[in-house]
Structure formats: C-alpha cells, structure tokens
Amino acid sequence: MKKIYSFIFIAFIGIIAFQGSSCKGPQPCKATITVMDSVGAHPVANVAVHLYANVTYNGQVFQGDLIVDGVTNASGQVNFTIKNPCILDIRATVANCTTNPFTHKYCLGTGIIRFDEGQTNSKTVNINQ
Q1: How far apart are CA 101 and CA 9, in angstroms?
Q2: Sheet with 120-126: strands ordered across
Q3: Is 101 domain-assigned?
Q4: How far is CA 53 from the centre of its chain?
Q5: How far is CA 104 from CA 93, 126, 127, in A?
Q6: Within a domain: 93
Q7: What integer pLDDT is reported at residue 65 of this predicted model?
Q8: d(CA 10, CA 4)
Q9: Residue 20 domain-assigned (yes or no)
Q10: CA-to-CA distance for 83 and 106, rounded, in angstroms?
Q11: pLDDT number for residue 76
Q12: Is this structure's pTM higher than 0.70?
C-alpha cells in the first residue's frame, strides 16, 4: 500500500513540475516608431504612419494583406502590436502638407521595421515638416 501512495505522490509531483516548465504561448510582436524632423532634433506630432509590405510575384508588385495604420502622439511616437513576426515598410506622411518647390519642403518619411516575437523594436523616421 505504501508503494501505491509513493507512486501517486511521485506522479503528482511530476505533473506539477511538467506544468510549471511548459512552454509559454506565442508572444506578441511590438514596435515603436518615432517621427522626428529632418535633422532629428524635434519629434513631430500628428503624423500618419502607415505600415505595409510589398510582395513581388511573377515580376509584378502587390501590396500584402497586412496593413497597419497609426498617428503619432505629442512625443512623436506611435506604438504597434501584431501577432506574428514580420518585416514591414514604413510610410510617414504629414497631414495637410503644402509643397512649395522653392522651399524644398518634404512631407514624407520612409523606413523599414522588423517585428520580432516577444520583443519591442524601435525605429526613427525623419521627415521635414
């Protein structure tokens, strides 16, 4: 009878140990994008940030299904969280931008960001406002 209780106790401890060391589920992928002015001195607020991926297939370029949009806060930052790891293109566009060919005012900033599982990656995009 003692052997049965010992076996049950050892099995119980084994189950508890197995549950405690089991794998965690997939962790979300996060990114913080900061939009700065052209010299990188000041953050730019209210900039539309568009994340997308272009896919080339049979010599043609298509836009992938994963598209994420956000707007920078007062600190010039926007945060994104997605489920799976990937690499996305960044397009940051100043709202209501008026271009003047004599002042060479640019309203667009671009870049690339990588989303890794369980990590928060950061990228700075410079834009002339």
Answers
A1: 80
A2: 77-82, 29-36, 120-126
A3: yes
A4: 13
A5: 16, 15, 12
A6: yes
A7: 87
A8: 10
A9: no
A10: 33
A11: 94
A12: yes
- pLDDT at position 37 is 87
For residues 54 and 96, is the Cβ–Cβ distance under 8 A?
no
60: CATH: 2.60.40.1120
Count of beta carbons in the 10 Å neighbourhood of residue 14: 10
Domain count of the chain? 1
Task: Please tell me the total number of residues recorded for the chain in this structure.
Answer: 129
Which runs of consecutive H residues, i.e. helices, occur in the chain?
2-20
Consecutive 10-residue runs of the chain (129 residues): their mean pLDDT? Answer: 62 62 78 91 92 90 90 95 93 76 68 94 87
Q: Is residue 19 domain-resident?
A: no
Helix (H) or strand (E) holding 108: strand 108-115
What's residue 104's pLDDT?
Answer: 47
Q: Which two tokens stand for residue 54?
A: 């272009």
Other CB atoms within a 10 A radius of the CB of residue 48 amount to 15
Give me the domain span that covers residue 106.
Answer: 25-126
pLDDT at 28: 93
The whole-number pLDDT of residue 1 equals: 59
